[in-house]
Amino acid sequence: MLEIKNQNLTVSVDLHGAQLTHVVDNKTAHEYIWDNLAWPKHAPILFPAIGRSTDDEYFINSKSYPMQQHGFASDYDFEVVYHGDRKLVLSFKGNEETLKSYPFAFELRLIFTLSLNQLVINFEVQNLSDERLSYSLGFHPAFNIEDDFEDYSLLIEPAREQLKKFEIVKNPFPYRSGAVKELAFSGSSFNLNHRIFDEGLIILTDKVNTCKLQGHHYAVEMELSDFSHLCLWTKEDEELPFLCLEPFFGLPDRIDEKQELASKEGNDSLEVGEVKKYQCKLTFE
């Protein structure tokens, strides 16, 4: 576990999966990140896939390759490129095992930087292969909910009269049906309750620039304008005190529709040698 720290916050990151495991307020000792075996993760990095592929596979030029839910980046140790008091740079370049499911050379870098009460996370993806690279990328942080779930609210900007989501088929796995539905309430500022997740995770169809999770005593604001979608999730069948705010691009497959990687809906791509950068900024209050 590696740590970066300033006068306001102490941040811990696990080299395994480059997972953000703790963000602690130095004055109050409040822990912002979920840490409980009821869901034994904290903030996985999702790469090079988002969600589940039909039958856990996809195609490249009609040849099938296995791909597990949310890809494989969270399963491997990252290398330390730089570790300072307030900045941490980690890198993952894949290996012989990842080539079996994703036959490309790449580098995925994560840069964690602390400034006052903000944690800025920069993601960099470089194509090191000799052909065009298609991929999804996401961040899956779970934030603690103190007191009652209903005591927290979520504010999403830009404001809209009616938020829409992709319809999710929950069983056997969370695929998309292909339809779009309106959320059961109007507006883009609302109080939380577990019932809004009865139909499964919520992937908003409209672009989100910022979202703010607000409780009586603590709040987290996320800036995610570099990402195309925001997903909201907590365990649907258990009333656990956490909420995931997940910025990503790329989408789960439509049910029973196998995908060619190059045309997979929502993916981004890189030409040979190209680098792309994305940023997520978290402000803790």
TrEMBL record:
Gene3D superfamilies: 2.70.98.10. It holds the Pfam family Aldose_epim. InterPro entries: Aldose_1/G6P_1-epimerase, Gal_mutarotase_sf_dom, GH-type_carb-bd, LacX. GO terms for molecular function: carbohydrate binding; isomerase activity. GO terms for biological process: carbohydrate metabolic process. PANTHER family: APOSPORY-ASSOCIATED PROTEIN C-RELATED, GLUCOSE-6-PHOSPHATE 1-EPIMERASE. This is Aldose-1-epimerase/galactose mutarotase related enzyme. The lineage of its organism: Bacteria, Bacillati, Bacillota, Bacilli, Lactobacillales.
